UniProtKB/TrEMBL annotation:
Signal peptide from the UniProt entry: 1-20
Name of the molecule in the record: Uncharacterized protein
Pfam family of the protein (one): LRR_8
PROSITE patterns on file: LRR
Family annotation (PANTHER family): FISH-LIPS, ISOFORM E, SLIT RELATED LEUCINE-RICH REPEAT NEURONAL PROTEIN
Source species: Mytilus galloprovincialis
């Protein structure tokens, strides 16, 4: 008897301990959020209130997700598992999470080729946002075997871009995918076919962490005819290439073309500083653009007033040209008059010419609820 009581007390103690490791604020005796961030956990707690809607298990030491680990938490809408060391997912790990809207698995060791068993996402019928970026930290060649096709309602996906990426037909099923974000970029060449398996309804494309130079075939964006936001900020692709792949968007409208800091000299490819010509501007100049960011691109000269060749100046709201070094001496007046024709313009950032300042304050473009807004930020720059 005595022994039994002691055991029970120990287990009670353990229960309350695990429970108390997570911070569960109660609002009118309703428990909706369990914050278990950075608690050194090696397994998913099994005794949290079953009606929680949000479970934050980020920054722990989870290494695997076994069968049915979230079965108890069928009301979950947000599940954060980022910054763990997860390598293994059981096929039924996410079973019962049919209300889940947001799942983050970024910064783990999940291989897009292997550890996602077929069926693992099948319960996640309502998932809108999946973040599985920053898992592939090596640049080996891998076909994507991850069964994303099971996530038929997904709107936003963040994923790594591996060397010789071949996506596969399962991506074609993502009929609702609008926002595609690549974080960790290992590609060296983007072929015309690289994104041909992607659904064509994508509106936002972000590829911003390619540190090694990427060769880009000029048809690479043809699979995305409905793009509204193209964000290459800080990727090493050179402005000359970036302007060449815009031909699918000629005579269309776009919310933002963000080409900040994408130009580094590449002797091997015979690419150096940028001399803008009318030929280079021939696609972009036909697009109706709300926000254009060409800042920090080593533009040293503009020939034939190429920068005022835009056919739809009345579309512009924000233009960033700062931290380049071209001279305006021969066409400054033309630019001035051109700006006058921009009826909706809210801001042109033309600062930091031609000197490179040490810590320039840049205006940054951010998207909030599908709208573009501008913030003042201390720009870390591509070398930062
Ligand atoms: C998933 O878990 C079940 C039950 O524990 C087990 O039988 C199965 O082998 C596991 N599958 C994988 C792929 O780990
Ligand atoms: C991913 O899986 C593939 C195929 O099994 C393997 O060749 C590769 O080494 C793995 N990569 C990582 C980063 O684990
Ligand atoms: C990749 O992950 C391994 C651990 O699996 C680590 O030792 C290595 O430093 C990482 N490499 C990079 C480039 O982050
Ligand atoms: C991957 O691409 C490189 C060039 O970037 C090429 O040499 C190599 O053969 C490709 N590997 C595979 C498996 O296709
Ligand atoms: C890529 O597509 C473009 C546009 O359709 C085409 O002009 C070019 O020849 C293609 N390149 C290759 C290597 O197939
Ligand atoms: C463009 O990408 C950068 C770097 O990832 C990011 O900080 C920025 O928010 C993105 N811009 C928009 C408008 O989403």
């Amino acid at each position: 008897m005595h022994f039994f009581i002691v055991l029970c007390m120990i287990s009670l103690y353990l229960c309350s301990d695990v429970f108390s490791e997570c911070n569960i604020p109660s609002v009118l005796l309703e428990y909706t959020v369990a914050n278990c961030k950075d608690k050194g956990l090696t397994s998913v707690p099994t005794n949290l209130p079953p009606d929680i809607k949000e479970l934050d298990l980020s920054y722990n030491r989870l290494s695997r997700l076994d069968a049915n680990v979230f079965l108890r938490y069928e009301y979950l809408e947000h599940l954060m598992l980022d910054n763990n060391v997860i390598r293994v997912l059981n096929k039924t790990a996410f079973i019962s999470l049919s209300l889940l809207k947001y799942l983050s698995l970024s910064n783990n060791y999940l291989n897009v080729s292997d550890p996602y068993p077929s069926g693992v996402f099948r319960s996640l019928k309502n998932l809108l946002i999946l973040d599985i970026s920053r898992n592939m930290n090596t640049s080996e060649y891998n076909p994507y075997r991850i069964p994303v096709g099971e996530l038929c309602n997904m709107r936003e996906m963040s994923i790594d871009l591996v060397l010789n990426a071949t996506f596969g037909q399962q991506f074609k099923n993502l009929h609702n995918l609008q926002n595609l974000r690549f974080d960790y970029c290992h590609v060296k060449i983007l072929y015309n076919e690289t994104f041909s398996d992607m659904p064509e309804n994508i509106k936002e494309f972000h590829m911003t962490t390619c540190k090694a130079f990427v060769v880009i075939e000029i048809g690479v964006l043809i699979p995305f005819p409905h793009l509204k936001v193209l964000n290459f900020t800080n990727s090493n692709i050179h402005l000359t290439q970036a302007l060449k792949i815009l031909h699918p968007f000629q005579h269309k409208s776009m919310d933002a073309i963000l080409f900040r800091g994408i130009t580094r000299s590449n002797i091997e490819r015979d690419l150096d500083v940028v001399v803008l010509t009318l030929e280079m501007m021939k696609y972009i100049s036909t697009i109706c653009i709300k926000t254009l960011d060409l800042a920090d691109n080593q533009i040293v000269s503009v020939r034939n007033k190429a920068l005022i060749s835009f056919k739809h100046p009345n579309c512009f709201e924000y233009i960033m040209l700062s931290s380049n070094s071209f001279s305006l001496t021969t066409w400054g007046v033309n630019l001035f008059w051109f700006v006058f024709t921009m009826q909706k313009i809210k801001m042109i950032d033309f600062s930091y010419f031609p000197l490179r300042f040490k810590t320039p304050v840049f205006l940054d473009v951010v998207r909030v609820n599908n709208h573009t807004i501008i913030q003042r930020l201390q720009y870390q720059g591509r070398w930062g």
